[in-house]
Amino acid sequence: MRLAEIFERVVGPDAPIRFTAYDGSSAGDPNSDVALHVRTPVAVNYLAQSPNAVGLTRAYVSGHLDLEGDMYTALRRMSDFAFAEGVNVSARDIAAIVRSVGWVKFVNRVAPPPQEVTRGRLAGLGWRHSKRRDAEAIHHHYDVGNDFYELVLGPSMTYTCAVFDEADAALERVGESADATKGAAGEGGKRSGGALESAQFRKYELVSRKLGLRKGMRLLDVGCGWGGMVMHAAREHGVRALGVTLSKEQAEWAAKRIAQEGLTEVAEVRHMDYRDVPDASYDRISSIGLTEHVGARNLDSYFDSLHGKLVPGGRLLNHCITRPRNDLKPMDTGGFINRYVFPDGELEGPARIQLAMNDAGFEIRHQENLREHYALTLRHWSANLDRNWDEAVALVGEGTARVWRLYMAGCVLGFERDVVQLHQILGVKLDGTDAHMPLRPEF
């Protein structure tokens, strides 16, 4: 039996994609603009070892399975069709695959692609969310190379959810941002402009307004990335800002950009674990995209620590990816995201985060869900990667570029379908009973 016949038996004859295989067989819609091609028997080995998303990921990342066309469109169609139909691989299907591929090849285990972080590799670095293990997890994802990130993120070098004015207009301008980024790459990433860059500026300004930044204040930005919030606060609001990151490459890049912008007297980024930042009298703290790496067991101590670093009347703005409900089972640590993208990453519902902030002593003053904005942000990043694909592959290799292509397209789908959300939660460390907040904030 040929692979295309097995494909039809598993997903049905009306799949809205083309399917082709190394044995010359084909199935699905011959006119579809997306196609799945099984290039070698190794792809079948991966699927046999893990007949789920992990097996498909391994086959695609290693290049033994190809996907032609737009990745987001392909994932959306497969999700709509396959999962709606309740796809299952029966014993009969397995037997047919064995006869087609050959028993020896079928049972021969194939090592995962090198981009996959194995549990054994992490276990050797200590307990989950120990300093050493967190440093390795951050290194895996954020130290891919600053040149690669410039291609994907654009001139703002901001790897967190942007804030758009009008969703429809933002979608129409996805190509504009990608073109601007492509031009910027040849100029050291110094070119500015484009819808994505405007939206990232708007995000930093929203955070600044929620924090009520004023000239002379001291801001601590934990998990600061390439220093975007640090530089924005210093440049636009006259704040003295310190950012900390576990990524050495991010810290080095940020230091150079801070010097280029003439902000060295008021802005600094250090290569440091947030737990090693000494208690001090900070007026404001921003945490943009760090809580996902803290871990559920550490949330209470995390917010306790931040509370201790603020002056009375100080504010914390926590911005992070969340789950749509608080009673869901813990995330699958063996799934695609944990294996390939964010090792040891954990997401919580917004109420769990808010509870930890409350218990640490923060009075919650505002909460906002930016779920749709993150879907739009990821569309821009995906467009940037596609437009700069050849250069990205040259920088990080095809396997890593494939991980990013799959990861970002899948996340667009996740935010659109409310699998994940993005919350900003504003808390105040009361000065006695005074929150030092306006009666009706304008943000």
UniProtKB/TrEMBL annotation:
Entry keyword set: Lipid metabolism, Methyltransferase, S-adenosyl-L-methionine, Transferase
Active site (UniProt): C411
InterPro entries for the chain: CFA/CMAS, CMAS, SAM-dependent_MTases_sf
Enzyme type, top EC level: transferase
EC number: 2.1.1.79
Gene Ontology molecular function: cyclopropane-fatty-acyl-phospholipid synthase activity
GO terms, biological process: lipid biosynthetic process; methylation
Pfam families per the UniProt record, alphabetical: CMAS (PF02353)
SUPFAM superfamilies: S-adenosyl-L-methionine-dependent methyltransferases
PANTHER family assigned: CYCLOPROPANE-FATTY-ACYL-PHOSPHOLIPID SYNTHASE (PTHR43667)
Family of the protein in this entry: Belongs to the CFA/CMAS family.
Record protein name field: Cyclopropane-fatty-acyl-phospholipid synthase
